[in-house]
Design a protein that fits this description.
The structure holds 2 protein chains of 2 kinds. By secondary structure, chain A is of the alpha+beta class. Chain A contains 3 helices and 5 strands. A 4-stranded antiparallel β-sheet of chain A has the order 2-3-5-4, with helices on one face. In chain A, a hairpin with a 7-residue loop joins strand 4 and strand 5. In chain A, helix 2 packs across helix 3. The longest helix of chain A has 28 residues. The radius of gyration of chain A is 23 Å and the shape is globular. In chain A, 26% of the residues are buried. Chain B is an alpha+beta fold. In chain B, 24% of the residues lie in helices and 29% in strands. In chain B, helix 1 packs across helix 6. Chain B is flat. Classes of the chains: A alpha+beta, B alpha+beta. Chain B: This is DNA-directed RNA polymerases II. Chain B: One of its GO terms (cellular component) is RNA polymerase II, core complex. Chain B: It is found in: Nucleus.
C-alpha cells in the first residue's frame, strides 16, 4: 500500500540508524554473512542411505515443481518430492532419494544445471523467433 | 564423477504478436516449466509503480489514501525496471528509497477554475525520468485527427474536480514485484493450455446420418467441428477451440457411439497467451520471465560450505570416492 504523508513535507527521511560494529573476527563475520545469505540447507537422512532433504528458503511452487520434475527425469533418482510445509511460511523442502550410483547432492546440482541450460536454450529460441519477425520489433 | 545430462531443448513458435499481446507455442517441455514461466510472469517480473505519495493539497471529493491507492495502480513504462535496484537493497540512499537508482519522482498539480468538471488523469503526472511515464493507452490507429484532444488524448482518470477544488502532490515510484502487491504485476493475464489432439473414428462416423452428424456437431459449446459441404464428412475446423468440456464425448455415448471421438491433451505442448498491462512489451515480459527464473535457480544452488561439510563428514562421500 502506498504510504501517505500529509502536507508537512519537512522530514520524510527517517533518522539514520547508528551502526554498532560487533567485536567479530573476520572468519566469524564471513560465516555470519554466508549464514544470512544461504538459501539452501542440506540435511542427510539418518536412516536411509543416499536420501536427504534440502530446505530452500524464500522459494515456492515455481522452483519446487520444476526441480521435482527435472529430478524425475534422472534415472538415478528413486524418489523426489517437494512440500510447502505451511502456506504462510515462505520455504519449501525438497526430498531426494537416489541409487548408490549418485547422491542427493549430485542429483540436486545436476537438476539445477540442466534447468539452467534449458532456460538458456529457451531464451535463445525465443530471441531467434523474435528476430524472424522482421519489421515488427 | 561425470553424469549424463537430462536437459531438454524446448521449441518456441510465435503465432501472434502485438505490443501488449502475445500468443506462442511452447513444445518439448513439461507442464512444470510452462507453469513456472506463467507464475514468474504474473508475480515475479519487476515493474515500477507509485509507492509513496506526499499530498500537499487535496480538496477533491476523494480522500488522500483513496487517491494514493489509485495512483499506485497506474501502470508505468518499466523497461528500466530490470536494471533498477529494489529500494530495500539500495545502498545509495540508506534504504529510504529516494535516489535515482531505485526511485522515480512524480509531480501532479491540478486546479479547477471553470464551471466545467476537470478530469485529472495519468497525463497530468510529471515524471522526473522521461523513460518512466504513465502507460499511453491511446490507440495510434484511431488518432486520425491530431487536433482532437478529447478522445485520443485521454489517460487514466485519477479524480474529477469541480470549481475551486485542487489537487497537488508528490509521488515516489519504486521497483517491485507482483508478489508484494498486484500493482507491480506486468501481466494482465497469462494463460496456457495443452494442445489438444483430436481423432475422429471415421468408420463409426460414417454410420451416422447427416442429421445425427449435425446434432453431434451442435453438442459442442465451442465451434470445434463442422461438416464438409461437399463430402458431408465431419471435419475438425479448430482443435484449439476445444475447452476439454467432454460434451461431444458424452453426446457420442448418448447416441450409442462410444469411441466416435478420441481427444487427448498433448502432455508436452502448450499454447500460451500473454497480455501485458503495457508496463513492458509482451515479448519482453516473456524474456524477462526467463531471466528471472534463471536468477531464481542460481540463487538456490548449494553453497560451497554445504558441499565441503558433506565431503568432510559424509561417511558415504568418502566411501564413494574410494577413500
Amino acid at each position: 500500500m502506498p504510504l501517505i504523508v500529509m502536507s508537512d513535507s519537512s522530514s520524510l527521511k527517517a533518522p539514520k540508524s547508528i551502526f554498532h560494529p560487533l567485536p567479530l573476527s573476520i572468519a566469524n563475520f564471513v560465516s555470519l554473512i554466508r549464514f544470512l545469505f544461504a538459501r539452501v540447507s542440506y540435511e542427510r537422512d539418518t536412516k536411509i542411505i543416499n536420501a536427504a532433504s534440502f530446505t530452500v528458503e524464500r522459494e515456492d511452487h515455481t522452483i519446487g515443481n520444476i526441480l521435482r520434475m527435472q529430478l524425475h527425469r534422472d534415472d538415478n533418482v528413486l524418489f523426489a518430492g517437494y512440500k510447502l510445509p505451511h502456506p504462510l511460511k515462505y520455504k519449501i523442502i525438497v526430498r531426494i532419494h537416489t541409487t548408490s550410483q549418485s547422491s542427493p547432492m549430485q542429483a540436486y546440482n545436476q537438476a539445477i544445471n540442466d534447468l539452467d541450460k534449458e532456460l538458456d536454450h529457451l531464451k535463445n529460441a525465443f530471441e531467434a523467433e523474435l528476430a524472424n519477425r522482421p519489421g515488427q520489433y | 564423477m561425470e553424469s549424463v545430462s537430462y536437459q531438454r531443448f524446448p521449441k518456441i513458435k510465435i503465432r501472434e504478436m502485438k505490443d501488449d499481446y502475445l500468443k506462442f507455442e511452447l513444445r518439448e517441455t513439461d507442464a512444470s516449466m510452462a507453469n513456472a514461466l506463467r507464475r514468474v510472469m504474473i508475480a515475479e517480473v519487476p515493474t515500477i509503480a507509485i509507492d509513496l505519495v506526499e499530498i500537499e493539497v487535496n480538496s477533491s471529493v476523494l480522500n488522500d489514501e483513496f487517491i494514493a491507492h489509485r495512483l499506485g495502480l497506474i501502470p508505468l513504462t518499466s523497461e528500466r525496471a530490470m536494471g533498477m535496484r529494489f529500494s530495500r537493497d539500495c545502498d545509495a540512499c540508506d534504504g529510504d528509497g529516494q535516489c535515482e537508482y531505485c526511485s522515480v519522482e512524480f509531480h501532479l498539480r491540478a486546479k479547477c477554475i471553470t464551471d466545467q468538471t476537470l478530469d485529472v488523469t495519468s497525463k497530468d503526472l510529471y515524471s522526473s525520468d522521461h523513460a518512466v511515464i504513465p502507460v499511453d493507452f491511446s490507440d495510434p490507429s484511431d488518432a486520425n485527427d491530431p487536433f482532437d484532444h478529447t478522445e485520443t488524448q485521454r489517460g487514466i482518470i485519477i479524480v474529477k474536480l469541480r470549481r475551486g477544488q485542487e489537487l497537488r502532490l508528490r509521488a515516489i515510484a519504486r521497483k517491485g514485484i507482483g508478489k508484494d502487491h498486484a500493482k507491480w504485476s506486468p501481466a494482465a493475464t497469462v494463460t496456457f493450455m495443452y494442445e489438444p489432439e483430436i481423432h475422429i473414428n471415421e468408420d463409426l462416423m460414417e454410420t451416422l446420418t447427416l442429421e445425427e452428424k449435425l446434432s453431434w456437431i451442435e453438442s459442442s459449446p465451442t465451434k470445434v467441428f463442422d461438416i464438409d459441404k461437399v463430402t458431408q464428412q465431419v471435419v475438425v475446423v479448430d482443435p484449439e477451440a476445444y475447452t476439454y468440456d467432454d460434451e461431444v464425448i458424452k453426446k457420442a455415448e448418448a447416441m450409442g457411439k462410444r469411441g466416435l471421438i478420441d481427444i487427448r491433451a498433448k502432455e508436452d505442448s502448450f499454447i500460451f497467451t500473454v497480455e501485458s498491462t503495457g508496463a513492458v512489451k509482451a515479448s519482453q515480459l516473456v524474456l524477462n520471465a526467463i531471466e528471472i527464473l534463471k536468477q531464481k535457480l542460481d540463487a538456490v544452488r548449494l553453497s560451497d560450505d554445504t558441499v565441503e561439510a558433506d565431503d568432510q563428514f559424509g561417511e558415504l562421500g568418502v566411501h564413494m570416492r574410494g577413500g
